[in-house]
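Supplementary Note 3. Input sequence used for the single-chain structure prediction.
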Amino acid sequence: MCRLLAYLGKEKVVINDIITNQQNSLEKQLIMKFLNNHYINADGFGISWYDNSISEKPGLFKSRNPIWNDNNIKNIASKIKSNCFLSHIRASTIGITSWQNCHPFNYDKYSFIHNGNIDNFDNIKFKLIKYLDKDLFSNIDGNTDSEYFFYLILHFVNKKHKLESAVIKAVNWVIENQLVYKEKVTLNIIITDGVKIIATRFSNRPNEESALGYTHTKLNNEILSVTLSSEPLNSHDKWFSIEKNHLFSFDREKCTSVLTKI
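The predicted structure, written as discrete structure tokens, is reproduced below.
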């Protein structure tokens, strides 16, 4: 399965310090999977990052190469400081291996990554295409379920829903429309606008145990930063698992986090 990583905080950090320079970094997670004879994530990777002093829209770097075979990411990520970024390593299921299908997906000020599947996505793809706002649909470059789901969230944002509500409405739309086909839906996602970050750990199957967790730094009762990851990045921080079928949100300006059942 894919690997997710995200950071949002009051302070800017060097991106590489979290992506690469960790006890259990994304790259090390993949090496351990390989050594344990598991399928490895070799279908591309990417990062998006924010610097609001330049623009509210995120920067983006993606590659269809395996992360261990592209030195560009290490050179770039070791020179960028950001207080919000997403990183994704892809193991393709729906959609070919291409730059367009690599995560993150960006639109305006929003950035998005996904681990999981909307199985037999073609069942509902045409209905979703007709449902989306035309201006949003015209921005879809690839053919993954992930990118279409991102734009479904943005569809509800355009209808004046807050980001948390838009995510929940998008999850419910997929579940309701796949219910007749009795298909598996797994939506471990992270989406941000650079100020607020939303993550879900969701599956409509009782035995689906794909993980997503977080750690945070605090001062008194205020949360200063949150790091989200598919696996704990180290053993010295306290990591919390997001409960299944829950939404986690953190607002950098309010310094608070919320866990909501979906």
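The first helix runs from residue 15 to 19. The mean pLDDT is 87.
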